[in-house]
Write a structure and sequence with these properties.
This is Ribosomal processing cysteine protease Prp. The chain has about 120 residues and is an alpha+beta fold. The chain is built from two helices and five strands; from the N terminus they run ββαββαβ. The longest helix has 24 residues.
């Protein structure tokens, strides 16, 4: 199962932690994994290339770990843009989780700014 935990500080998403492999099908044939991976990678690209954010990324392919957090102090406009991108990722993953409950789980964790 893949578990994605979104990190929210106040009213805004500020990152996420994804771990595990969906196990829906063998590697290379797993459409659920492909959908989750596409949303994760697209969100990261949007945060970096469109919003211009520096991100703290931790990745381990074998364990299916991908953590992403907004790094450092960020201006308000960029936080708004990042929240929009992360909300879109959240909605997409919720949709996948609805259809494939045994393979994908999505949750939200409230964090303090000093935890970032």
């Amino acid at each position: 199962m893949t578990s994605v935990q979104f990190l929210r500080a106040g009213t805004r998403f500020v990152g996420f932690k994804a771990k595990g492999h969906t196990g829906y099908a063998p590697a290379g044939q797993d459409i659920v994994c492909a959908g989750v991976s596409t949303l994760v990678q697209t969100a990261v690209l949007g945060l970096q290339k469109l919003v211009g954010l520096e991100l703290q990324i931790e990745q381990e392919q074998k364990g299916g770990l991908f953590n992403c957090r907004i790094a450092g102090a960020v201006e308000e406009k960029k936080l708004e843009q990042a929240d929009l991108i992360l909300n879109l990722m959240y909605l997409g993953l919720q949709q996948i989780a609805q259809e494939y409950r045994k393979y994908v789980q999505v949750s939200v964790k409230e964090v303090q700014n000093d935890e970032l």
